[in-house]
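Sample intake — Zinc-or iron-chelating domain-containing protein
Collected from: Desulfonatronum thiosulfatophilum
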Amino acid sequence: MTNQTSSASFSTPEAFICLRCGNCCHGEGGIVLNDSDVHRLCNHLDLDLASFAAVYMESVNGKNRLRTNEQGWCIFFEQGCAVHPAKPAVCQAWPFFRGNMVDANSWLMAQDACPGINNETGHQEFVAQGNSYLQDLDLEPSTATSPNALNRST
């Protein structure tokens, strides 16, 4: 008797699938912008830098970040991301932030806030898929003015 098994039956589940719950869009100060983000958002919104900055951006401790509305949501959150095709790198990278990648306990805590993280894959698979995803995005590395959460070095 021959055992015939489809390789598809052993496919690895996704470590993260965005459920668009918006939990990661809530909280002041978390969306730090790098220069590429600002340029991409200005183009997407058809705004010059001064107009964009006046409405959507603030500078805190030398870093530019998106403003939040009065309820603490990202200024672009409206039943989902209003700038999804041009969203900032830090938003694109979630939940594959450095802390969640290098520390299994951080990964476990992130699951409390993010229902899209699949704990069944395990931390090692989460890291493997995260590294692949971040490389595919070709995000610029952290700089003095960009988010440290995107720094993939250990």
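Post-analysis note: The chain has two domains: 21-88, 95-139.
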